[in-house]
Amino acid sequence: MNYSREILYHRHRLSHQQINSLLEEQQNQLVFEEKLHQLSLLAGFLTLTDNLQKENIWFVPLKGPLLSYRIYGDATCRRYRDFDFLVKPADASNVIRLFCSLGFEYEKQRWPEKENERARIISRVNQLTLFNPAEHQTVEIHWRVFIDPVITFDRIEEVVRKNIQKVSFAGREMLQFSLEFELFYLIIHGGLHTWRRLKWLVDVHEIISRFRVDKKKFEELVNQFSAQRMIGLCNAMLRHFFPGSVLLPVDYTVPEWFVNYALRQANKTKDYTHNMPSYSLKHRWFYINAFPGWRYKKKRLFLLMASMKKLNYSLNTL
Questions:
Q1: pLDDT (tens digit per residue) in 13-43
Q2: How far is the C-alpha of 256 from the C-alpha of 179, rounded, in Å?
Q3: How high is the mean pLDDT of the chain?
Q4: What is the pLDDT of residue 274?
Q5: Which residue in 194, 96, 190, 195 sits closest to 146, CA to CA?
Q6: What is the spatial distance between Cα 192 and Cα 212, in angstroms, rounded to a whole number?
Q7: Model's pTM, two decimal places?
Q8: 90-96: long-range contacts, CB 8 A cutoff, minimum separation 24
């Protein structure tokens, strides 16, 4: 892999242990220092999950320590900076109240007091971020796995229910996605972020290289979400960054411009800026073409028009 350790660590957010493997190096002192930090984060994660379980709140940890443990058998190998929890929409208010009682504060968007305003937020976005300044911890509370309605949210929730399993972790029983759904989730997450961070592609590469993925179950998920283009894009990225890699069991040819856009994002040495109108327009167009279907494209076209209005406003104020 033709990237420096600095780029892989800061830009793509891989751990030093992962980078050692990719670059075939041994930077043991860096790994040791990182392990101490990750162990501290792990302790914070367990405190939060213990409190959620104490309140009998249903939740599924997304990525983070459980994903690291699943792939590497080591909860501190994969690098993470915040904690993501999937909860039921009806429990969102209770989870936010619980975390605020533990010292977390609103980062940007506040949770409204009125029930109708809460319902509107739940229907329009899929998460809310809280930050604990004393512990330097960030949590993202998700009430939907995906923000975009590729299929109805009721059907998405049904798919999620069918792909939950119980696992033992740090002497506790927790819920986790099935291997096939976790793989699918990572592909959609990474793909809709244009694979701009290689950490997600490394996750996918490690899973399909280390484990036996049930081809039939995985193909069912792809077909349910009409996600052939997202899978095809992931395979193209795997071919580019991991030549000779095992590929995902879906044969789909992706337009060249679509792949090239993702490659450009991954190859940038600096991260993008969300609020640049020109970036927003290009990214919105990429988003629109990620999935077929009116339900998905209707929402994405609405956001594209909003971006165009923002661009016109910026040009008129020059």
A1: 999 999 999 999 988 899 999 999 999 999 9
A2: 30
A3: 89
A4: 54
A5: 190
A6: 25
A7: 0.90
A8: 91/57, 91/58, 91/143, 92/118, 92/122, 92/128, 92/141, 92/143, 93/118, 94/55, 94/57, 95/52, 95/57, 95/59, 95/141, 96/128, 96/130, 96/141
The DSSP output letter for 55 is: T
Structure token digits, residue 201:
């592609």
Q: Which amino acid makes up residue 136? A: H
Q: List the structure tokens of 235.
A: 């395979």
**Could you tell me the two tokens for 3?**
């990237």
Specify the 3-state DSSP secondary structure of 218.
helix
In this structure, the number of other CB atoms found within 10 A of the CB of residue 58 comes to 14
For the ranges 133-142, 200-209, 308-317, the lowest mean pLDDT is seen at: 308-317
Pairing of strands 127-132, 137-142: antiparallel
DSSP 7: I
The values of phi and psi at residue 94, to 5°, are: -65, -40
3-state secondary structure of 2: coil
Longest dimension (CA), the chain: 60
In three-state secondary structure terms, 106 is: strand
Helix ranges restricted to H, 55-152: 64-72, 92-101, 115-124
Give the single-character DSSP code of 47.
Answer: H
Burial class (CB in 10 A: 0-12, 13-18, 19+), 148: buried
Here the tokens at position 254 are: 């992706």
Quote the CA–CA distance of 183 and 147 in Å, as a whole number.
18
79 touches 17 (CB < 8 A) = no
CA 269/CA 122 separation, integer angstroms: 35
Grade residue 110 by pLDDT with cuts at 50, 70 and 90.
Answer: confident
